[in-house]
Structures are given as structure tokens and as C-alpha cells.
Fold this sequence. Notes:
Blueprint: H1 4-13, E1 16-18, H2 30-65, H3 74-97, H4 100-128, E2 139-146, E3 153-161, H5 162-181, H6 184-201, H7 207-227, H8 230-237, E4 243-247, H9 250-253, E5 260-264, H10 266-285, H11 291-314, H12 321-339, H13 342-347, H14 354-363
Antiparallel strand pairs: 1-5, 2-3, 4-5
Helix pairs in contact: 1-3, 1-10, 2-6, 2-10, 2-11, 3-7, 3-8, 4-5, 4-6, 5-6, 6-10, 7-12, 10-11, 10-12, 11-12
Amino acid sequence: xxxxxxxxxxxxxxxxxxxxxxxxxxxxxxxxxxxxxxxxxxxxxxxxxxxxxxxxxxxxxxxxxxxxxxxxxxxxxxxxxxxxxxxxxxxxxxxxxxxxxxxxxxxxxxxxxxxxxxxxxxxxxxxxxxxxxxxxxxxxxxxxxxxxxxxxxxxxxxxxxxxxxxxxxxxxxxxxxxxxxxxxxxxxxxxxxxxxxxxxxxxxxxxxxxxxxxxxxxxxxxxxxxxxxxxxxxxxxxxxxxxxxxxxxxxxxxxxxxxxxxxxxxxxxxxxxxxxxxxxxxxxxxxxxxxxxxxxxxxxxxxxxxxxxxxxxxxxxxxxxxxxxxxxxxxxxxxxxxxxxxxxxxxxxxxxxxxxxxxxxxxx
Length: 364
């Protein structure tokens, strides 16, 4: 199932929160709130859109190579909110016992390396087109094996070139900027990179699995935001680029602004992997149409706008999945019912187990 990083990301960040009413800061102006919300909205929907199309390419490459990706089973999806709850409460206890300065120091170093790699992964194809034809490029191939033939296994098999090294160096400079200054722009560059990579690489194989996962996290988010102060406390204490932030006082203070609204990456990646699945379902129908993807994408945008409206109306932290899940599940399933595709939607599978299919055919 998902690794620790994935659990921490989805655990901590299924939260959208405004801190404009903090007692030590002046109230945000309506214009500042509008700019902040609009910026967070764009930074949320762009990774979902780009990541969805990148997921199609990623799955095609895996199918061509014969490699079957790790996907979440129904059991994994059902257990995920429970595991996430345990991780969230564990982090909360750690922050109560130990100094958060030392904990965040370790987190900063950890996410520095992850952020540089994530940013390089999405920036590489863009940067490679900017190099002139005269650039002295050279390819490299790192191979690390274990054992002797015929039991030899590849532990590391990585191909890269000088363009990749330059890209990594540029991303490393951004990483140092984040490491030294913790500036909100550097944080957002890493956050957007994490979100795009998450939507691209995390895989839901079936719509039913997505319904179980989103339904479970729907309850999880409501409980930990409205039922306790655990998630809000952890989100405020957890200093890592696993949330997008934008200042509400940027019009008054420019880049030095520090009165932030925040949007957790879980509120982008969790619905985003379901929207990406809808795009792959569209492709499987071979109708030259992306109706389910655009329905899911519009649903996500609508749910996010509603979240932001309620957030600022009630001036209280909101569980974003409370609004996102009904939109992201309800609209695409409703459209599929109207178009007569509901059976095909729930039977669709990205990477079906061909061995089971062959065994069934032989039995018949």
C-alpha cells in the first residue's frame, strides 16, 4: 500500500484553513482574501489537470513495458482512513511531547530531498526543450545489481543525461532557498510538484476503489476537523511543503506578506487521482470524448469553490473533503447513469489481471 510519506501527506493535509482572524494580525481586506483564494484555487486545479494527463502517459508506458503498477485494493482503500487516523494522532502526540523546532528540522531535511526530486521530475521535460542544439549532452546509466547469474537482480537501473543533471542542480538551488528562508513561494513550488507527481503516480485501478477511499476519507476529514482540534493543531505545527499557502496581505506587504491561507495537498491529490482515473476511463471508451474527465474536473472546481466560500463565511477551518467528495463522486456517476455507461464505469479496470481472465476462459 502507500508508504509512510503518502500516509503522512494525506493524513495531515486533508484540511483547508484560513488564519486571517489570528489575534496578532490585522483582519485581511476583501481584496486580499479574493486574491489569496483565487491563487490557491488555481494552484489546486492546475496539478489535477496536468497530473491527470501525465497519468495517462505513465500508464501507457507501464503497459508497453509489461510492468504492472502497484494499485490500491478495496481492502487497502477501506483501511486507509484508519491508518491515516493513527498516523495523524501519533504525529499530534509527538508534537505534544517533543519540541516542534527539532521535529520540523528533521522534516525540513527530509522534504528538501523529496522536493528537489519531485520538482526535477516535472521540470525535466520542460527544461530539456530549452537547451540549445549545441549543448554537449551525454547519457549515463547507473546499474546496481545484487547476486550472481542466474539469480542476479537489479537494485538500481537509472538512465539520465547532462540535461537532467542541470535540471537537478537548478531544482537544488530552489531547495536551498526553501531550506534557508522557508519562503512561501519556494514552499508552493515544492507543493505543486508533490501534487502533480501524486496525481500522476498514485493509482486507483477501479472506480469502486475510488468510491471506498473517498467515502472513508470523507468521514475521516469531518471527524478530525470538527470533532477534535488534532488536525488543526498538527497542520499549524507541521512545517513542510505539504500544503499550499498564499498571503492575504500580499497587496499591502508584497512578497514579505505573512498572513496566510492554506490548502492541504491531500485536498488536491485524493480527489485528483479519482479525476485522473476518469480520464483513463474516457480513453478506454475510444469515443474521442473526455466527458467524464471534464465532469470530474468541473465537480472538483465546484467543490473547492464551495469550500472556500463556506470557510470565509464561517471563519472556521473546514474539512474540504466534506464538499469535494459529494461533487467528485456524484456528478460523474450521475452523468454515467444518464448516458447509460454506469455498468461500464464500474467494470472498468486500468490493468486487469490477465492471468485470472485466461484461467476463467480455460474453465469455460
